[in-house]
Queue: 2 jobs
Job 1
Amino acid sequence: MSWCEYSTDRELRVRSVPLGTLKWMISGGVFLYMCAILFTEKRYQKKEPVISSVHTKVKGVLEVDSSIWDPAEYTVPSPGGSSFFVVTNIVKTENQKEDICAEYPSRKTICSQDSICKKGHADTHSNGIQTGRCVKYNNTHKTCEVRAWCPVESKTTPEPAILASAENFTVLIKNTIHFAALGYTRKNILPEYNVSCKYNKVTAPRCPIFRLGDILSAAGEKFSQVAILGGIMGIEINWNCDLDPWAFSCHPQYSFRRLDDKAVDESLFPGLSFRFARHYKAQDQTERRTLIKANGIRFDIQVYGTGGQFRFLELVIFIGSYLSYFGLATVVIDFLISQYYKGCCSPNSGQRYYDEQKYKEIQGPSILTSCLDLMFVSFVDQDDIILIDKKLRRSLQETKGHKIKRGAFTSREIFRRIEDPGAIGIELLPVTTKALSKASAIPAWCQCLKCHKEKEFENQLCCRSKKGECITNSDMFKKLVLDRHTLVYILQYNDPLLNTHSIVSEKLVKCAEEQYIQWRFGSNKDILAFSKVPSCCKFEIRNAFDSNIQETLLHAKEQSASDASQTPLLKQHH
Ligand code: ZN
Ligand code: ZN
């Protein structure tokens, strides 16, 4: 990696009218969808949930049985503030004192004789503790006698509800909302609304004063019905605020619904009720009380909503999140191409052509370890090249690797020239090979019997995988690798002004090894640098162009040639 480099992805451009049209249609569709979402859902805005406070005030007075009911009598404020309770029905039991009296008749308390009643018994529905006697409750029933606040409360709830006309009461809801991150505060009571308005969904949708009967009818309930046993109503205030100056809107929307389940079986205590008592001292100094069971409707106010305002960062994030969908076209088109060529297994199939253009295949590492060595090996008795990507722990010859197809050999031009030595402007020189001192032991990994001892594992490589004749004995090796004319020709091909009189033998050795690699591994440039030359070939090349022997030989020969002409090369060419 370098600071002076920049790398990009390389892409394949497929020339095709239908695929091109499809790509633009998909990209266009994605773009339109993105714009639609952006503007309909205002995704360029920063959104924030509402924080709110609610305060309520119920108003209305009515007279029932010559007693006056004002807000202090019929409302019970809740500590939460966002709900209020209005009493709609009461069961009043007056002048109670601690005494002994007949229990209220029910399936468990009706009796015919004393033995049915148990002394000291009381259950969850009892008004008092049984004394064990059966006494007369009224003309039709006898019940167990209890010690309790007497007379016991009558369990029948009046119908219609005593305070049924509470539906004409009104409630003023004061609601202040705040969007902290956007720094915006607003109230539901605006200066332009007068205090005598009354909410109506159509004619006065912003008025904060509600008639209780209207709240119930908006939720599809009848006030006179709910008033008998009580219930829970929800008042929902929805604030959806657009705080952008070009599209400002921030108004509450009210909606109503019943929160408790009116369908529950009567025996499971439907409605909403509670009891309270007012104590006083009677004239005979005994403590007396008035017990009141109150049924009523609780109104819960729920405020929710979001505020949104344009933020450049939100817009950037939104666009960024949708950019990846433009890649959908590539996925779809690749899928279509693969479907189009599906089942074509012939070597001429279009899929193969497409794949070869699109993918470059390489062998992945066989094990995941750092500092892997990578080497390519070619044996004369095997068709494939072998890739070895391991730290060598034994000779390269004995290390296992993956097989890879050999690339095509493209040095045909050189072949042609060699067929016609006259075309090369150099006189053929005899190749003198130094006598091989094969007296020393042949290493165990050698299969051709011509390799030498090597220190490094990576140099312990033979030209064969199984026992047989050495590649250096072949005619082709002599022509392509060891032939001085071929090598000089290649060196001149690369450097046309090369002085043939002073070619260093190192250069010839290097060129010969490159010749060998190109011949055996193909002209795939990517693997040339990693390809290994077998020990026998290396030795043979060194031997052929050993500087000590060869330099003198070459000089003597060239000397005599230059005597005849200053430029033997050119002369012979003409
Ligand atoms: Zn060998
Ligand atoms: Zn060999």
Job 2
Amino acid sequence: MNPVSYDPHHRIWALNARNSSYVLRLDDGDDAPRQLHWGPHLTPEQALTTPPLPPPGNSFAGTARGREEYPTEAGASYGPAALLIRFADGSRGVEWQYLNHTVDGGHLAIRWRDRRQPLEIVLHYRVYEDSDVVERWAELRHTGTSADDAPLTLHRVDSAAWSLPHRPDYRISHVIGAWGRETQLRRTPLPYAELVLTSRRGVTGHDTNPWVMLDAGDATEDTGEVWSSALAWSGSWHFTAWRAQDDQVRWSGGAGHDGLTWRLRPGERWQTPVFAGLYSADGFGGTSRAWHTYQAGHVLPQPDELRPVVYNSWEATGFDVDEAGQMRLAALAAGVGAELFVMDDGWFGARRDDTAGLGDWTSNPKAFPDGLHPLIDEVHRLGMRFGLWVEPEMVNPDSDLYRRHPDWVLHMPSRERTTLRNQLVLNFARPDVAAWAHAWLNRLVTDHAIDFLKWDMNRPFSEAGWPERGEDADLLWFEHVRQVYAVMDRLRADHPHLRIEACAGGGGRADLGVLARTDQVWTSDNTDAVDRIAIQHGYSQLYPARTMGAWVTDCPNPFTGRTVPLRFRFHIAMAGALGLGGDLTRWTPDELAEAACLVARYKDIRPVVQHGLQYRLDGDGVQYAHGDRTVVIAWRVAPAHGDPTPPLRLRGLDPAARYRDERTGLLHHGAVLMHHGLPLDLSAGDHASMVIRLNAVGQG
Ligand code: GLA
């Protein structure tokens, strides 16, 4: 099947993804684009017969006919618009005139112009043979040719709008959270309202994350239709989901947040980030796996690599870092099997706590009298790679950089500059700031054998002004993110061995945009294994385990004060990209020996966890399947006396195959494991856990 087909007679385009189709057409008469279908495969002929919404029955209902592909404020339409634009004469909305379209493999670009205003709109679509994800984005161009032509004023330019077929009762799934409590899954009925999910922070945010899933109230982990979408953007963003009184449901979303205004001048273009959509008939589990597979195939920079076992010094040493202390930790980390040693905050400038030094990116001569080379050499000698914490977008007012360039931060001339964690945000939208950041990062990586950067971002924007740009200051909300991406992209291009971890106070910058140029995300600063269960469950809804950084740290846990067994801490962290973050100098020889065994166990199951398909199990467990191998991580947090331990029903196995438990040698039938479950040998007491490794040994 062609990925894109076009029927010129009916002016219909069909995008054919792996198991689904997306079909749109031009309206007769006015050329406005309208979605016909998003769901299982339909031919254009079939899609043409999808029932239209009933015509508006009275003057108050306006003229909108539903399923607008890219709603503007045109005519008498009153639903939320994806494009808010104002022209010089005060006109708003778009009068669509179709120009042409191009198809290049799975990429379809459809071009219109406004009938009376100097505006061209291109809607882009891209599908892949191996995925049900439809990538969409939009492009605007001011077609005026004279510099005297008035600019276009933009208030909202969404990447795409998504409409759903009629179902009686949609639900919406999304995540909420906070620092140390990211990605908490919530699933609620979609209200008859405009529901806004947004970040106004300049960064993706901890409090929600730019994806949604909608289902007709009947989807389970294994079954049912789920429509979802995720935005590839790491700055402010907004989604507006709308359920009208007639049960019409659509949502649109893109970069930026309400209230921003910027202008497009003659000849200028505006391109939105990708807003990717996915239809799956395989429930929430199938939806998550389809997103994971899409990211491995089309988003992540190095999908085939295994993420190394990291040791990170933050919880061990805080800001109190020096050469001898880090070397001591490095030796212990290598001893338990770490493969990458990351020195966190505190190594540079006058940084001895969070009040000073950010912006002065040379190593502290007191802590590192001979620079970073001796430590890096030692880490390499121990057989590990070396990584370093950086926070390039930030500055402490108490720093040489700020004293030299107070105008480099986001600021408004008549407003106080609000510090958070004693720091201000550098305006990366300024070319000189982005060039400075690239120059020092490039020098750092060139002059040292640095294999890995943990790129942090520890506060949201405030007083986000750019005085030099006057009325167009709001551009900074977009340009800052583009320049962060550009610096990361250049560093990776010039240093192909370099790997990057995305961090913003933990999981404040996890999204498809940053994942296109980083290798993993620091999921949360909260390393409590019990709290992590819910955080990881929410993270897994969209993002794959191979990107989910998970460290084992000390007890009592610094966040919760909770003490749980080392083995439980490891087992929960083994569900992602395992790391260690505790003060190993305080671990007993027994603990270090146990840790070494558990790290070795992780290395054994790592290809399955990181490259396999993930199944969330009913009850307390998660399963990964890769080729013949299946790994199950199971736990019980705090059972009451007499609570049964039911067998754990596995998913996605071959019912006709037998599976050998690598530890016990016992053989299980796939059909029984899926229908009745795997008996669990979890000891009594709190925080019991186990890792089960199964191997398919053929049918029978
Ligand atoms: C953030 C990160 C932590 C650590 C500190 C250092 O909070 O999420 O992991 O790097 O900054 O200041």
